[in-house]
C-alpha cells in the first residue's frame, strides 16, 4: 500500500502565484503521509491568450516554478507529477508536458501531450490549442516509482482509448490525467470517462484538475479524483476552487492483482505469434 495525493488549484499567468499555491499542496500532501503528489495540467501558468502562452514559457532549468518544485521535492522527500509548458521546436508554439520530479528533486520522466484540444462548444468556449501548442508524437512507456508503475497522459488524451490501452499493455499500474477541463465538457464527460478508463485498463486512475476562474476567458471544472481498478471513485474534490486542496488514497497492489485475476481481459489479438485473431494489438 502506498498513499498518494491528488492536488487541485487555480493557475493564473503568474508563476510566482502558482508556485505558492503548489507549495501549500506539497505541505498538505507531506503532512498526509503521501509518497507522491499529482498536480494538474499547466500548473506553472494559464495565460489569457496563445501569444501570452508562448511569451511566458521558459526551459525547465530556468523556470522559477519548476526549480521551486524541485527544491520542495528534495526538502519533503516527496515525488511530484506536474503539468508544465516547455519551449517548442519553433518560437511560435510551446510543448504541453508532464514531468515526474522524484524525491531527490530530479526530473526523471517527461511526456508531451499528443491530442490537442481544438473545439467549438455550443454556448461555451471556442478553443484551438494547436495555435500555440505543438503535439507530441510518442506514447512514453510507464516508469517505475515508489507508488507503482506510472503511465502519463494529459487532459484531452482522456478521450482516446488507444493511448490508455497501450499504456496498460506496457505494464502500467497507474494512469494519470492531469487536466484543465472546461465546465461544459467536465459536467458531461469527466467522471464517466475517468471511471471507464480505470475499468477497461484495470489500473488506478489519478486525475488532478485545474479549478475555477483563471482569467476573463478561462474557467476550469475541477473535481479532481482517484479511481480504483474496479471503477470506484476512492477520493474526490469539488468544483468551488476557493483554495488549493488535496485528496488522498491508498494504491493497493493487492487489489490490482485481484481485479486482474478475477476479471481477466483476454483480448482477441494473436492466438499465435504470427496469426491475427480478430483485431490487432494496440
TrEMBL record:
Protein localization: Cytoplasm
Molecular function, one GO term: hydrolase activity, acting on carbon-nitrogen (but not peptide) bonds, in linear amides
Residues of the CN hydrolase domain: 2-253
GO CC entries: cytoplasm
Gene3D superfamilies on file: Carbon-nitrogen hydrolase (3.60.110.10)
UniProtKB keywords: Cytoplasm, Hydrolase
Pfam families: CN_hydrolase
Transmembrane domains' residue ranges: none
Top-level lineage group: Eukaryota
InterPro entries recorded: C-N_Hydrolase, C-N_Hydrolase_sf, Nit1/2_C-N_Hydrolase
PANTHER family attached to this UniProt entry: DEAMINATED GLUTATHIONE AMIDASE (PTHR23088:SF27), NITRILASE-RELATED (PTHR23088)
Similarity-based family: Belongs to the carbon-nitrogen hydrolase superfamily. NIT1/NIT2 family.
Descriptive protein name: Carbon-nitrogen hydrolase
Amino acid at each position: 500500500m502506498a498513499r498518494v495525493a491528488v492536488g487541485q488549484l487555480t493557475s493564473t499567468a503568474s508563476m510566482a502565484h502558482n508556485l505558492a499555491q503548489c507549495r501549500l499542496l506539497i505541505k498538505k500532501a507531506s503532512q498526509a503521509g503521501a509518497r507522491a503528489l499529482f498536480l494538474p495540467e499547466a500548473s506553472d501558468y494559464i495565460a489569457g491568450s496563445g501569444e501570452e502562452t508562448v511569451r511566458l514559457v521558459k526551459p525547465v532549468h530556468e523556470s522559477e516554478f519548476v526549480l521551486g518544485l524541485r527544491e520542495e521535492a528534495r526538502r519533503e522527500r516527496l515525488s511530484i507529477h506536474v503539468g508544465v509548458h516547455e519551449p517548442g521546436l519553433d518560437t511560435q508554439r510551446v510543448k504541453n508536458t508532464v514531468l515526474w520530479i522524484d524525491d531527490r528533486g530530479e526530473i526523471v520522466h517527461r511526456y508531451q501531450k499528443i491530442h490537442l484540444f481544438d473545439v467549438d462548444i455550443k454556448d461555451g468556449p471556442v478553443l484551438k490549442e494547436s495555435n500555440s501548442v505543438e503535439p507530441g508524437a510518442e506514447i512514453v512507456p510507464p516508469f517505475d516509482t515508489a507508488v507503482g508503475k506510472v503511465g502519463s497522459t494529459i487532459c484531452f488524451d482522456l478521450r482516446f482509448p488507444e493511448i490508455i490501452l497501450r499504456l496498460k499493455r506496457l505494464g502500467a499500474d497507474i494512469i494519470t490525467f492531469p487536466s484543465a477541463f472546461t465546465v461544459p465538457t467536465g459536467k458531461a464527460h469527466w467522471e464517466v470517462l475517468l471511471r471507464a478508463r480505470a475499468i477497461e485498463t484495470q489500473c488506478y486512475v489519478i486525475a488532478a484538475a485545474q479549478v475555477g476562474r483563471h482569467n476573463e476567458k478561462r474557467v476550469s471544472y475541477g473535481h479532481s479524483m482517484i479511481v480504483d481498478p474496479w471503477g470506484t471513485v476512492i477520493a474526490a474534490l469539488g468544483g468551488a476552487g476557493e483554495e488549493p486542496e488535496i485528496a488522498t488514497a491508498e494504491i493497493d497492489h493487492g487489489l490490482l492483482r485481484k481485479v486482474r485475476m478475477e476479471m481477466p481481459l483476454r483480448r482477441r489479438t494473436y492466438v499465435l505469434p504470427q496469426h491475427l485473431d480478430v483485431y490487432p494489438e494496440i
